[in-house]
Structure formats: structure tokens, C-alpha cells
Specification:
The structure is a single chain. This protein has a five-stranded antiparallel β-sheet, with helices on both faces. A three-stranded antiparallel β-sheet has the order 6-7-8. It contains ten helices and eight strands. Helix 4 runs antiparallel to helix 6, helix 5 packs across helix 7 and helix 6 packs across helix 9. With 295 residues, the chain is α+β, with helices and mostly antiparallel strands. Helix content is 37%, strand content 16%. The longest helix has 21 residues.
């Protein structure tokens, strides 16, 4: 096996002022034109992200990296994001990099593994699940109140902390109220959690046209993520051999699997909230603020 790619040296040197001299640098991911590393030091840890200069999507990922940094700044000023989350950003000889504080948590899919078992129906698990959903919606409510949609709500962008709280990451695709300025066109995110109205808009417009995601689309994606990670099945069934546009055409119909037919055990409050989130008409979905009291 080859040696793991190293992060931008100038970024590591600069971040040492935040973490202290690195004691560990570990590659977390290397896919879709970008890489991420965990940099641990005596004073803390950060996630350093950089575009992959030799990747097919290097140019787009460079723009996305700059866009995410811009989004983090705006969301922080709007009070929708903890000011400690963003650490630093800059350029390097291969493009751009961005560093955010490390969040100690595991992706939603792994965290909810105990709930996917019939044995998950126990008194201690219900408030834990409700707490994850509530803290997730509280974060989205702050974004939505500021006029933003995260636009990439999905299991891998939601971490569950040891205390049972949801933490939202990855703001590169977010859609804000000032998106009249030049930006990377939003064309949906993870197919399986794409809201029907986003799927419809993507199918109806050229590939270089920006589709402005609204908060209601986040709510559908929230419901889809909880449905998927609790039941083990995606809410919209389709053949995995279909290409992305064909899958989006199925999603655009607005039909989902009945949750009661696939849930591992009965949890009426959670079921009702997820079902409401997956309403095909955006106007029929609850807001994030309304959801915070439903879990």
C-alpha cells in the first residue's frame, strides 16, 4: 500500500498555533476531489480539509472550499453557528484549505445501530433518540431563522456526540439569503436524502443552473435521514442500478415507504414526526422550530 497523502504543510504549521505541535496527523477521507485529516495536538484537535489537486473535480472543489469558508463566516455573524467552529482557512499550491474544530462524535448511521435492532426498544433508548432529533432540529432552526438552508442534511454530515447530541457539519453546499452573488451552483446533494422539490428542480433545469434550497427541503432530508438510519432502509425505494437522474425522477413523485411497515419497533412520537417531515408538499411539513417540541 502507498503512503497516505500529506496535508498542506503551510496549513499544518499555521494550525500548530491552535492545536500545539501536532502529535497525530491522520487521513480521514480521500474522495470526490477532496481530502480531510484530523490534526491532534496537546491543545486540541482540528479537521483540515483541502481540495485534491490531481482530482478530476479539483477546480470545483477549490471553489467549494472557498464557498464553505464564506458560509461559515456568514453563519457565525448571523448567530447560527458557534464562533469556535471555524478555525482558519487559506490557499496552498494545490488550491484551498479550510480548518474547523474537531467534534467528538460518530456519524448518525453508526450511532443509531442499536436502534435498528428489535432489542433497541428499551426505556433508555427512547429519550436518547429524541435528544438526538431535538438537538438536530434546534441547530437547523437557528440556520433557518437566519434565512439559510443547510442543503446537505444527511447521515454522514450529522455526528452524535457521547452526550447524545447531534452536531451538524459540512456547510459547503448551504444556501443563504444573499445567494445572488457568484457561487458554485447547487444541484442537490446526496441522492437518497434529496427532497422531492429539489429533485424536480434539478430534473427541470440545465446542469449549470443554481437551485436555491429552502429550509423545508432540510426538513425532508432530516426525516429521510432518521428514517434510513433507524430502519436500515431508505425512505424512497428504487433500484440501485438506476443512474442519479433516474433516481431523482422516482424521488420527485413524492412517494415514500410507509414507516410502520419497516420500523424495527414502535415509537409513535418519532414515527409521527418523521412522517410529517416526509410530506411531499413542502408547505405541509413542520418547521424546524415546531419540531424541537415534537421529539
Amino acid at each position: 500500500m502507498g503512503q497516505a497523502p500529506a496535508p498542506p504543510g503551510d496549513a499544518v504549521a499555521l494550525l500548530a498555533g491552535h492545536t500545539g505541535e501536532p502529535t497525530e496527523i491522520r487521513l480521514l477521507s480521500d474522495r470526490r476531489g477532496s481530502r480531510a485529516w484530523k490534526i491532534q495536538g496537546p491543545n486540541g484537535a482540528v479537521v483540515l480539509k483541502a481540495n485534491r489537486p490531481d482530482g478530476d473535480e479539483a477546480r470545483d472543489k477549490t471553489a467549494e472550499m472557498a464557498q464553505e469558508d464564506d458560509h461559515l463566516r456568514h453563519l457565525t455573524v448571523a448567530g447560527a453557528l458557534d464562533p469556535d467552529y471555524r478555525v482558519s482557512a487559506g490557499t496552498w499550491d494545490g488550491g484551498r484549505w479550510l480548518a474547523v474544530n474537531w467534534i467528538d462524535g460518530e456519524p448518525l448511521w453508526q450511532a443509531l445501530a442499536p436502534a435498528r435492532s428489535p432489542e433497541g426498544d428499551r426505556a433508555s433508548l427512547r429519550p436518547w433518540l429524541a435528544g438526538i432529533a431535538r438537538t438536530w432540529t434546534e441547530h437547523l432552526a437557528r440556520m433557518h431563522a437566519a434565512g439559510w438552508a443547510h442543503a446537505d442534511v444527511q447521515p454522514t454530515n450529522t455526528l452524535v456526540t457521547p452526550g447524545g447530541h447531534a452536531a451538524v457539519i459540512d456547510y459547503a453546499l448551504a444556501c443563504g439569503p444573499d445567494d445572488g452573488h457568484r457561487r458554485v451552483p447547487y444541484r442537490g446533494a446526496l441522492t437518497h436524502t434529496t427532497a422531492p422539490e429539489i429533485a424536480t428542480a434539478v430534473l427541470a433545469t440545465p446542469a449549470d443552473t443554481h437551485v436555491q434550497a429552502q429550509p423545508a427541503a432540510d426538513i425532508w432530508s432530516l426525516g429521510a435521514s432518521l428514517f434510513w438510519c433507524w430502519t436500515g432502509q431508505r425512505p424512497v425505494p428504487y433500484d440501485d442500478d438506476l443512474d442519479r437522474l433516474e433516481k431523482l425522477a422516482v424521488i420527485a413523485k413524492g412517494t415514500t415507504t410507509m414507516l410502520r411497515d419497516v420500523r424495527p419497533w414502535s415509537f409513535p412520537e418519532l414515527e409521527d414526526a418523521i412522517t410529517a417531515c416526509l410530506a411531499p408538499d413542502p408547505a405541509d411539513r413542520p418547521t424546524a422550530k415546531e419540531l424541537t417540541s415534537a421529539w
